[in-house]
Write a sequence for this structure.
């Protein structure tokens, strides 16, 4: 229980002490961030499609080999 109390007090103390930072991020920084996010999303979609296509490809090759052997 003391650890939980210590963590909560540390968080509250940090929130009280920290001053807000007034910074401007221009549009030049937003474009690379947007490109990175799009790149990550496309990569995840490609990986998922490759994982899902793998069993379908095996099934199609097996059906083709079965037809050829007949």
């Amino acid at each position: 229980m003391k650890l939980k109390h210590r963590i909560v007090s540390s968080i509250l103390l940090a929130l009280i002490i920290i001053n807000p930072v007034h910074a401007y991020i221009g549009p030049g920084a937003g474009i690379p961030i947007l490109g990175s996010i799009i790149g990550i999303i496309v990569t995840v979609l490609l990986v998922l499609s490759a994982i899902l296509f793998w069993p379908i490809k095996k099934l199609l090759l097996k059906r083709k080999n079965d037809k050829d052997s007949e």
About this structure: The chain has two helices and no strands. Helices lie at 2-17, 27-69.
